[in-house]
């Protein structure tokens, strides 16, 4: 391990998000003590209001870019950080709020707000990586706390984070879960979704919702064909399957658009 | 050859348990047959059969009292010996010293109830790969030692079974301590039982209700012959290994890539696939590191990651690697086929890709 004289500074930043990913970090109670021993927490809105000035060794960025102000602020963070890690579905694909990318945002504002003229919002919700260079993307909705610790630990120990890019099916079979597609005909996004949740939904007899986003080399087209032909899904249902938490992730977005008539 | 009645079956389980065996057998869970610890013969599924097809598995009640009218679920016995997640060692930094604490191999008597003939072959293949070659997996060897096997011949083959083509079933001819063939149902289930070891002989002599008669053996032969004629699938293996070895640039691989998800289900469910990877993790202080071995598959990108990238980037290349290893290069490597004809890869492929169909398609138009 490299010898360190000063503790590396860690900052956590929030953009358009629900704070759930930051809470995953707070939830690392035992690990957090070790984190606090190894790292100086310089900015972490969910944990403390104190802000230590940059530059930062690692910035964890939660949330997507949805306003002009955010689109500017993210560049400041990049300039002040050695490593930027985008955490969670919002920061890595645009999140659930990216559902608006498929709608007319002005019309939505008029429907929702009494004074839409005060709303200053971008037409699309976009991931951090669309705006700045991101060193690492940590998927999940929310991120898994063990993965967060793994990324920080890899950084502190100067090695590559050990996180999978294969399908959820791998975790499903390692755990001995009965496949909901084959045994029940339930549509499941597992084959095209990156592992990381330990097959949480299939364990409870549900199809995967795609929280960890598209895996390496996903074949969404034929999976959708199977949903239509063998799982009795309508094109509208197929759109809803792909248009969820990671609706704006490229392979999922293109697949849902393919089924719009 | 003995006749075993249901109470004799229970007696065998009892005496195994008394001798300290942990008993694993089929159980019903989440709409499928899984392999789990069982307490008594009463916890075995009764009166169910399976309907299996490409990407499809459903159970149905038969309305009778049959014991073994179903075949295989996605679980295979390999999980008991070649564990899906296996800690290997823990390293601790103690001042300037590294302490390495290896995971001790776990022994223990195990009894496997309801092992199908194709599964006996799968165990033999894994023994060859993991225990009998140049490199021996001590965890596998330890957990495989002291295994007592009660095999069940198949009278109702599944819709994706093709053991007859692979020469592995539907009748067990070796590799068991006791083998059973179920005769009749309608509340009158009985088994023709054979011993394959002295231990099996001893248990059967104590538990059976006598020797099998001429008519029992006649009925058994008829049932098993009918089963052999009832395979859900078939595969012509004559000259197949050689044809596949020449098929590297066959257009079918690109075509299957359009359907294949590279999801790994076929390999994870396959009872002979043995690929694995090791994962290291460290704690935040960098003073403890663990190494764990986990099931891996030729369908992941990382599996063929060498310096600079993955050797098999496309799904077509991954599928080709898998199919040609099973049915062709396995012969060169281990002196036999890597496929037992169990059909799991067909049933549990979420998009129903059928190894028999793909192999046939490649061979049909292959050179050589
Ligand atoms: S349940 Fe879903 S994630 Fe699990 S093996 Fe089946 S398709 Fe894959
Ligand atoms: S053949 Fe089927 S089970 Fe195997 S990787 Fe391809 S889609 Fe998955
Ligand atoms: S390749 Fe398929 S049929 Fe052959 S042993 Fe493996 S899972 Fe069974
Ligand atoms: S492949 Fe043969 S031995 Fe295996 S379960 Fe099917 S019928 Fe039985």
TrEMBL record, chain A:
InterPro entries: Hydrogenase_assoc-protein, NADH_UbQ_OxRdtase-like_20kDa, NiFe_Hase_small_N_sf. The keyword Oxidoreductase applies. Keywords: Oxidoreductase. Gene3D superfamilies: NADH:ubiquinone oxidoreductase-like, 20kDa subunit. This is Oxidoreductase. One of its GO terms (molecular function) is oxidoreductase activity. Residues 18-154 form the NADH:ubiquinone oxidoreductase-like 20kDa subunit domain. Pfam families: Oxidored_q6 (PF01058). It comes from Candidatus Polarisedimenticola svalbardensis. It comes from the Bacteria. The lineage of its organism: Bacteria, Pseudomonadati, Acidobacteriota, Candidatus Polarisedimenticolia, Candidatus Polarisedimenticolales.
UniProtKB/TrEMBL annotation, chain B:
Keywords: Iron, Iron-sulfur, Metal-binding. It comes from the Bacteria. It holds the Pfam family Fer4_22. InterPro entries: 4Fe4S_Fe-S-bd (IPR017896), 4Fe4S_Fe_S_CS (IPR017900). SUPFAM superfamilies: alpha-helical ferredoxin (SSF46548). Residues 249-281, 330-358 form the 4Fe-4S ferredoxin-type domain. This is 4Fe-4S dicluster domain-containing protein. It comes from Candidatus Polarisedimenticola svalbardensis.
């Amino acid at each position: 391990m490299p010898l360190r004289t000063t503790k590396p500074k860690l900052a956590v930043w929030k953009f358009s998000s629900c704070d759930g990913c930051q809470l995953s970090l707070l939830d690392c109670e035992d690990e957090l003590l070790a984190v606090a021993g190894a790292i100086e927490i310089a900015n972490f809105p969910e944990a403390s209001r104190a802000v230590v000035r940059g530059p930062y060794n690692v910035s964890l960025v939660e949330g997507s870019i949805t306003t002009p102000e955010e689109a500017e602020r993210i560049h400041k963070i990049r300039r002040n950080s050695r490593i930027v890690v985008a955490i969670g579905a919002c920061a890595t694909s645009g999140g659930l709020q990216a559902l608006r990318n498929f709608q007319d945002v002005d019309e939505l504002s008029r429907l929702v707000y009494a004074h839409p003229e005060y709303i200053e919002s971008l037409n699309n919700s976009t991931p951090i990586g669309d705006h700045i260079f991101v060193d690492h993307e940590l998927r999940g909705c929310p991120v898994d706390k063990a993965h967060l610790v793994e990324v920080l630990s890899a950084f502190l120990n100067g090695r590559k984070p050990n996180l999978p890019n294969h399908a959820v099916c791998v975790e499903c079979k390692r755990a001995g879960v009965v496949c909901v597609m084959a045994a029940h005909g339930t549509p499941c996004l597992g084959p095209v979704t990156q592992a990381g949740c330990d097959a949480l939904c299939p364990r409870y007899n549900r199809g995967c919702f795609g929280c960890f986003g598209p895996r390496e080399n996903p074949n969404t087209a034929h999976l959708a064909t199977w949903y239509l032909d063998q799982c009795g899904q309508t094109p509208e249902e197929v759109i809803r399957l792909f248009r969820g938490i990671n609706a704006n992730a490229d392979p999922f977005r293109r697949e849902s658009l393919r089924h719009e008539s | 050859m003995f006749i075993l009645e249901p109470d004799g079956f229970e007696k065998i389980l009892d005496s195994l348990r008394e001798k300290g065996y942990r008993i694993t057998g089929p159980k019903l869970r989440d709409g499928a047959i899984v392999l789990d610890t069982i307490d008594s013969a009463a916890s075995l599924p009764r009166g169910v059969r399976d309907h299996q097809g490409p990407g499809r598995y459903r159970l149905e009640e038969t309305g009778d009292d049959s014991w073994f009218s179903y075949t295989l679920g996605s679980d295979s016995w390999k999980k008991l010996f070649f564990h899906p997640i296996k800690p290997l060692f823990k390293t601790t930094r103690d001042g300037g010293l590294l302490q390495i604490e290896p995971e001790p191999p776990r022994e223990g008597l195990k009894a496997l109830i309801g092992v199908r003939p194709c599964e006996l072959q799968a165990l033999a293949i894994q023994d060859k790969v993991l225990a009998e070659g140049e490199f021996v997996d001590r965890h596998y060897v330890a957990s495989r030692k002291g295994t007592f096997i009660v095999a069940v011949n198949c009278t109702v083959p599944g819709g994706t079974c093709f053991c007859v083509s692979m020469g592995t079933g539907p009748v067990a001819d070796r590799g068991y301590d006791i083998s059973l063939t179920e005769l009749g149902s309608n509340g009158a289930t009985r088994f023709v039982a054979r011993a394959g070891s002295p231990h099996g002989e001893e248990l059967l002599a104590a538990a059976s209700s006598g020797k099998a008669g001429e008519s029992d053996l006649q009925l058994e032969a008829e049932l098993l012959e009918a089963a052999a004629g009832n395979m859900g699938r078939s595969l012509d293996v004559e000259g197949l290994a050689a044809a596949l070895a020449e098929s590297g640039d066959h257009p079918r691989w690109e075509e299957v890539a359009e359907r294949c998800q590279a999801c790994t289900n076929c390999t994870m469910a396959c009872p002979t696939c043995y690929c694995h990877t090791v994962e290291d993790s460290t704690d935040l202080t960098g003073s403890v590191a663990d190494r764990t071995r986990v099931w891996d598959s030729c369908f992941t990108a990382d599996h063929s990651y060498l310096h600079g990238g993955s050797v098999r980037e496309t799904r077509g290349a991954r599928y080709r690697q898998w199919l040609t290893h099973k049915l062709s290069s396995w012969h060169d490597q281990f002196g036999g086929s890597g496929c037992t004809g169990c059909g799991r890869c067909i049933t549990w492929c979420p998009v129903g890709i059928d190894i028999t169909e793909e192999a046939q398609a490649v061979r049909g138009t292959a050179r050589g």
